[in-house]
Design goal:
Distance between the termini: 58 Å
Strand order of the largest sheet: 1-3-2
Number of strands: 9
Order of helices and strands: EHEEHEEHHEHEHEE
Largest sheet: 3 strands, antiparallel
Oligomer: single chain
Structural class: alpha+beta
Radius of gyration: 23 Å
Length: 205
């Protein structure tokens, strides 16, 4: 993953230099201000930035996942897909069940580890998704089905229901699927990693 260095009298000027040299728009670049080069008696100060092209990061993540799986002893293929402009890396391995783990535990650990490495490499968060044989997609459907079923029970009984602990992505699925429900509403409660969604009945109008 290539990192480029540019300078300018201001950060804005340095960014312009980067865009012209790389022939890219700013939204396709990851820009980090490195520091300021102090000027001398006849020289003005300069701002230095580090620039990485997002496509380079996307490519590097795929290569890193392949390398990591190989080191772990898995024979796997990794396909790059885009979901809502978020890079999605779909893994097809010789042992999907082991890679996924119970309730997706190993998949979450893999995603966390890769994310930690990438964030350290580029100095900021970079959103991407790792999936194994569409496990996340199937789990998303299961969560949506669970949310609708429990919401129906809450609407009928008028008794709130607390779902099992979920990560932020899974909680967002529940909130989204019930956001327009006229009989119930959702709230997140608790602290990570035990934060969960509570489905509550709305007051009768």
């Amino acid at each position: 993953m290539e990192k480029h260095s540019y300078t300018g009298k201001t950060k804005e000027e340095a960014i312009i230099n980067a865009k012209e040299d790389l022939q890219e728009v700013e939204t396709n670049l990851i820009i980090r201000e490195v520091g300021t080069q102090k000027g001398g008696l006849f020289k003005s100060s300069k701002v230095e930035i580090e620039v990485i092209e997002k496509r380079e990061v996307v490519r590097y993540i795929k290569e890193y996942i392949i390398q990591l799986l190989k080191e772990l002893g898995f024979s796997a293929q990794v396909e790059l897909k885009n979901k809502d402009e978020v890079p999605t890396y779909m893994i097809y391995s010789d042992n999907d069940a082991l890679l996924i783990g119970k309730n997706g535990k190993n998949l979450k650990a893999l995603s966390f580890y890769v994310g930690l490495h990438i964030n350290k490499m580029i100095g900021r968060n970079f959103r991407f998704i790792i999936d194994i044989n569409e496990y996340n997609k199937k789990r998303e459907k299961r969560i949506e089905s669970l949310a609708k079923r429990v919401a129906k029970e809450v609407a009928q009984t008028k008794i709130e229901a607390k779902l099992d602990a979920m990560n932020s992505y899974e909680r967002r699925i529940v909130h989204n699927v019930l956001t327009n429900n006229k009989r119930v509403y959702t709230e997140s409660e608790g602290e990570e990693p035990n934060r969960c969604v509570v489905i509550k009945p709305k007051e009768d109008e």
